Structure formats: C-alpha cells, structure tokens
Amino acid sequence: MFGRLIILVAGLALLGTAACAQHARSGAEMLTVAERSFSDIPFGTREGATGLTMVVEGQCQKWADCSYIDANQVGHAFWEGELLVKFFVFPEGNDQPTTVLGIGTARAMDDVVTRVRRFLPEAELECRSDADRGHTCGATLGEGWITLRFDRNGRILEARIDAYHFT
Q1: What's the pTM value of the predicted model, to 2 decimals?
Q2: Cβ(30)–Cβ(142) under 8 Å?
Q3: What is the pLDDT of residues 111-153, one digit of tens each?
Q4: Core-most of 7, 12, 121, 154, by most CB within 10 Å?
Q5: What ranges in the chain are assigned the alpha helix state H?
Q6: Is there a contact between 116 and 101 (Cβ–Cβ < 8 Å)?
C-alpha cells in the first residue's frame, strides 16, 4: 500500500512538472506581458495616441524619432510614426512603486533583478559590468528585448523595452 502511494505521488509530481513546462510563455508572449507592464499602448501603435505628451517639440521632423511621455512618466519612442520603444527613467530619490517589469519599489540591482526574474521567469536575464558606466542587464523576448541600466553603485537608472531591431 505504501509503495503504491509513493508511485502515485511521484506520478503526480511528474504530471505537475510536465504541465508547468507546457505553459511556459513564448518569446512573443513574454514581450507582450513585459510591454504592457510599461503601458497599455501596444507596440505598433501609430503616432498620435491619446494620453501622450511630446517630450521635445520639433524632434520628429529633425530625426524621424519622436518621444512622448504618459501620465505615469513612461517614455514612448516612435520611429517613422510607429511605437517601437518604451522606457522608464528612475528619478534619484523617488522610490514610488512602478508596474514596469514588476519592479515595484526595488531600486538596488539585486532586488530589481530578483523582481524582474519573478515577473518573467522564462526570460534568460543576463547582467554584465561596465567599469565606467555601472551594470547592464538584458534579455531577449521574441523579436524584442528588455534592458536594465544601473549606476556604479547598483541603483537602477532606466528600464527599456524594444519591440524589435529597427535601425
């Protein structure tokens, strides 16, 4: 009887593992989830979306790259009229929570990386040190990717998501 119980428990554990593996999100699904953590305006939206304010007037005509900001201080960059990049700059001294990549109130590199990995467990987030600039972490999500920039002290400076390589 005890032997059958062990086999049953082992079988259920294997089924649970297989079920989790079957529900892993694809790169495109991870990109959508990550992108929506920045704002509800989807990649590919044409320039002129409501709720956005242009950052630098005249910028579009000069460089074909237009940046806007929303009410939550999330930047939206349009290239040739299409939304392709979202970014959030973490102001120094401002520890207000953000929905961006599940970061919340974390600002220290270890805490931020832990939260992003919890938010996107399937993503292979890799970090590297740059002696002059601090640290950068990133992960590919389908055709797009996320980038986290930290200062030399390990405090987050910016989170960015790109829809795909467009230049």
Answers
A1: 0.82
A2: yes
A3: 999 999 999 999 999 999 987 889 999 999 999 999 999 999 9
A4: 154
A5: 2-22, 27-38, 59-63, 109-119
A6: yes
Which residues contact residue 27 at a Cβ distance below 8 angstroms, ignoring those fewer than 6 apart?
140, 141, 142, 143
HSE value, Cβ hemisphere, 13 Å, CA-based, for 38:
30
Query: Can you give the C-alpha Rg of the chain in angstroms?
Result: 20
Question: How far from chain centre, in Å, is Cα 20?
Answer: 22
Neighbours of 3 (CB within 10 A): 7
- Tokens at 149, concatenated: 């920039």
